[in-house]
Amino acid sequence: MIRFRLNGEAAQFDDSERDMPLLYVLRSPAVGEMTPKLGCGIEQCGTCRVLVDGEPAYACTLPAGAVEGRHVETAAGLDTPVRRALIESNATQCGYCLPGIIVAAEALFRANPRPSGAEIATALDSQLCRCGSHPRVLRALLEVAGR
Amino acid sequence: MKPLPHALVATPSLDRWIRLTGDGAVIAFTGKVEIGQGILAALGTIVAEELDVARRRVQVVSGHTGHTPNEGVTAGSMSIETSGAALRQASAWARCLLLQRAATRLGVAEDNLTVADGEITGPGVNERLTYWNLADRPFGFEIRDRMPEKATSAYRLVGRDGQRRADILAKATAAAFVHDCAAQLHARMVRPPSLRHRLIELDVDVAAPGRLVVDGSFVAVAHPVEFEAERLAQRIAGSARWLRIGSPPEGFDIDESRRETAEAFPLRNGVPSPVPRRQVATTHRAVYRRPFLMHASIAPSAAIAVWRDGALAIECSSQGIEPLRQVVALVLGIDPDAIEIRHVPGAGCYGHNGADDAALDAALVARAVPGHRVSLKWSREEEHGFEPLGPAMHVEMGASLDAEGRVSSWTHDAYGFTHVARPSPGASGVDLLSARFLAEPFEPTSPRPALGPEVGIHRNALPIYSFPDQEVTKHFVADAPVRTSALRGLGAQGNVFAIESFMDELAHSAGVDPVEFRRRHLRHDPRALAVLEAVLKSSGGLTGHRGLALARYKNRQCCAAVVAEVSVDPETAEIRVPRLWIAADAGRVIDPDGLTNQLEGGAVQALSWCLKEAVSFDADGAVTSRDWSSYPILRFSEAPEIETVLLDRPELDPLGAGEATVGPTSGALANAVFAATGLRIGDLPMTPDRLREAAAR
Fold it and tell me: Measuring CA to CA, how many Å separate A115 from each of A40, A109, A118, B58, B336?
């Protein structure tokens, strides 16, 4: 068994799944964490993003074995001002890209609690949104930054 | 008096729309579905308002065959107008019937009773009496006439700020999409290189230990472990050999030969008519074009299906579960009543994307593995490669100006392919992707011109302006080189882009300020003028590198005006849009935040189309832009700040707005680029190369 922590709780998966992308292991019945989504599978859209020991990672390509003994955080585990601001301001439309945006924004705010608008936008350039919620995502995060 | 909403004529039983449950809740049923627009939240607010209950009591159940009213397809910015009108009227009846029950029980006149959050008070009410005390039996009532509705002046929920969408928390933090539903088997497709290819052979042995499903050139594989299914699909794809059948497409442009052979339908009373096109002399001419575009959903399409005892249950994110049920039944050769379809949200679709196709794919696999719940997901490459595309357009404009700087004659010739190819019962063919690949194939419908008002190619071809002489013509090109269907706004984006760019060109030719030039031709339309003035006020007017455009969606629904501000990098020729202003009149506003979100989302999507997007193909007609680097869309650092002003008209009916800004934003962008550079870009997308080409001319 490969053990890791998922949103603060102990979690594990079978050794045979070591080479599988982390996203598929997280979403498998054994782990059952459906928050990160598959969007492209090639690190182009960011819907799969998670934090591994606080660093943003693309779960669609990261081999699951890489998180052994480490802490994986998904949007489900990030009950933070960033997530609350995005949800409370309806900063999405279909919502499919939102878990990845929460993770990418959370990583930014941990490193830089008062980012500028340009810093927020640049940090989110790894995340695609097709509904055009960009302006309200940026507005919500600027408020979190106190700007 | 207004007629009864047509959805109530089709489904008159009140119990099909409104149900009270014992725990102090109200369930509202709608045939419309949530495609990311917050529509269920807004419909719930309409019900809570009309019934006089707290918003939190109302739960909306949507899109489930046999359980929710059949309201066709969720499209055309119609949900608030149609389902909203039906639910408001049904709620007015429910309130009245519940008060009648109360009056009978109390022996008082119902006029003396009042309701607050479902609690009934009045003379003779000694103990707590609520709707739910009176809801021990169904309404058993058929709506045949209109019930007077609550005065909008008494509204306490509709139109108020601070409305929240209850679905967002789950979408951010849990399983919420059809992609997240549990399944016993995961399936993946093995697709041919293009729609024109058919299977010659594949190595069935490489599919082990998966379950291979082959029917003609339909190839899929299923496995209990999702990643294994994906790996097996790649292995099978590597072993498969395909043959291109028929001839390759003759180019992808709406070139002269396609334009000459197109069927022409001049608009008469707004309707394309088989009459000769009137010759109208014009002195100014211009051509505007857009390429094929993708819906480019952020999630690849997916569906769940299970086949048990000859019956099929599907969960999918189709916009039209009722027509889909009919067409899937036709392909499978079973009774539509043997199929149950439940809508589960997918990612935003912006029109007819792969959602319906994935439902058939899942059904075909499920039939091969009876008793197993199958989750079928497309890959990113497949979504980009096989979704029905938003059709290219070619619009030729002509006009003459009189001595006073007014348009004296106007021609608009909109050429293009079909925008309307949703799966539809009764059509001559089957418009589901995999049907054509089966051993006993179903060919897609031969494209036919849509001849209703404001559909397809001629949507918003009629100008909002008043001109003394005009001839507006739809030109239908039947031989589309690729599969096309409805993309947000249909023809409205290309037509409004053309009209509003051309109006700017004419204003400059006439030496008239473009705002004043528009006002001159809008005197008959005070609502449009008010929207125009509102966007000028909020933006501070057309100073600097700004452009303006406006339109009323379908010439009937939400009227939106947009001011765009651009900056053009002199080195890279890259166009950026730092700021955008929107003003809109959508009649009575239900949810100001939801409406703003839709208007802004449409504007951002239109900027993405106009600045970056074009589908590319190989000679066989296969899409070659199959990922986000070959088909880039607007990113966060490229998105504008947007300020939106809503002109609420509480006394008027609400108007559909989800597609209202795509046209005006496209025109405002083109006009702002002209203001910044003096260059008129008629060919979308406005890439740096296009800008350099225009500068070199």
Answer: 28, 7, 8, 39, 56
